[in-house]
Amino acid sequence: MTVDVIAAAAVGDWQAQLRAAITSPAQLAAALALDPAHFGDSAGAAADFALRVPQPFLARMRRGDPDDPLLRQVMAAGVELQAAPGFNDDPVGEVAEANPRPGIVRKYAGRALLLVAGGCAVNCRYCFRRHFPYGENALSRAECDAALTWLADEDDIEELILSGGDPLLAGDRYLAELVDALHRLPRLKTLRVHTRLPVVIPDRVTAGLLDALDRDGLRTVLVLHANHGNEIDRAVQGACERLRGRGITLLNQAVLLAGVNDSADALAGLSDALWDAGVLPYYLHLLDPVRGAAHFAVPDDRAQRLVGELATRKPGYLVPRLVREVPGAASKRELAPAYPA
Ligand code: SF4
């Protein structure tokens, strides 16, 4: 099936677009007129962490450019198989320290994560959860009810974060029932959703999803994940407009990635594209040292200089906070920008 045929078959139907996602490096290289040999043992890398790229995201990549910043985020490459000191399977200590019961991750005061879905619409090669045991955290209906009971008994949780994988992989009806149940938690004030789906498949922002997320008395924050301005096209802008139309606050978190967005121009372009879509750039994460992603690392001092330069070019609200996750720490650690002399 050609990319054009996939696109024609799936217009407007996010689940069909999901099913038609490209899952092999050879297919992805062919769709972009690239030589698969350029990426080394991509089949071996995809065996370690599966490749998944939906067509709407593919459509924003440049044909014939192996260094396209969107392609680089998702193409399995042989370099992932090289061992790197300090890079491991649980880089932020979620499995070892912060997974108190299936489906729940608890790292910081006042907040908890509920792992709603164990997969994503796109598989990002740098993902800190690329080795997370989603299978052990997949929730049956009864386990989900038990997780909600556990949350109700925790005294200090005022914010619940729907995460995954990508929580918006769950269907609209399931999400509506889940948000209904969360709405009944006595202390909950804020529902936060961490998702990349409105970026990779904008048609995911359906009327049913908007109804599910829109609840009186519960503030909803949706944290998108885009790393490069080329990810934000008209369809993504439309999805963001629909979300904002329901009073949902939109923020973005990006990861600083070598070869993707590690220049002041790329970061400025991302901030501009986000702002055009009504989204504030909130966090710029340093790479978590997950096995297979060492080639994306940017040294701290360079990251600080990049954010310092960005601060000279953009207003403060378009300069994200540069942060790192430290296993076991009570909060993210912020790194100060290094301003040009
Ligand atoms: S969408 Fe997020 S959770 Fe999913 S693979 Fe990408 S970075 Fe990881």
Labels describing this entry:
binds iron/sulfur cluster; nine-stranded mixed β-sheet; TIM Barrel; 12% strand; alpha/beta
| End-to-end Cα distance | 54 Å
Q: Which consecutive residue ranges, at least 5 long each, have pLDDT under 50?
A: 1-9
- Major sheet: size, sense and barrel closure? 9 strands, mixed
Summed up, the helix count is 15
- CATH class annotation of the largest domain: Alpha Beta
CATH architecture of the largest domain: Alpha-Beta Barrel
Give the H and E element order: HHHHHHHEEHHEHEHHEHEHEHEE
Counting copies of identical and different chains, the oligomeric state is single chain
CATH-defined superfamily of the largest domain: Aldolase class I
Give the C-alpha Rg.
19 Å
Spatial order of strands in the largest sheet: 1-2-3-4-5-6-7-8-9
The overall strand count is: 9
Number of separate domains: 2
Percent of residues in helices comes to 25-40%
Chain-averaged pLDDT: 92
Q: What small molecules does this complex bind?
A: iron/sulfur cluster
Outline:
globular
Q: Which structural category fits the helices and strands?
A: alpha/beta
Strand-residue proportion: 5-15%
CATH topology of the largest domain: TIM Barrel
Write up this protein.
The modification N6-(pyridoxal phosphate)lysine is found at residue 332. There is one protein chain. The chain is of the alpha/beta class and 341 residues long. The protein has 2 domains: 3-81, no CATH class; 94-334, Aldolase class I (TIM Barrel). Helices cover 35% and strands 12% of the residues. The chain has 15 helices and 9 strands. The chain has a 9-stranded mixed beta sheet with strand order 1-2-3-4-5-6-7-8-9. Helix 10 (172-183) runs parallel beside helix 12 (207-213) and helix 14 (264-276) crosses helix 15. The longest helix has 14 residues, at 300-313. Mean pLDDT is 92; it is low at 1-9. Bound molecules: iron/sulfur cluster. Iron/sulfur cluster is lined by residues 120, 122-124, 127, 129, 165-166, 196, 225. Iron/sulfur cluster binds next to loops.
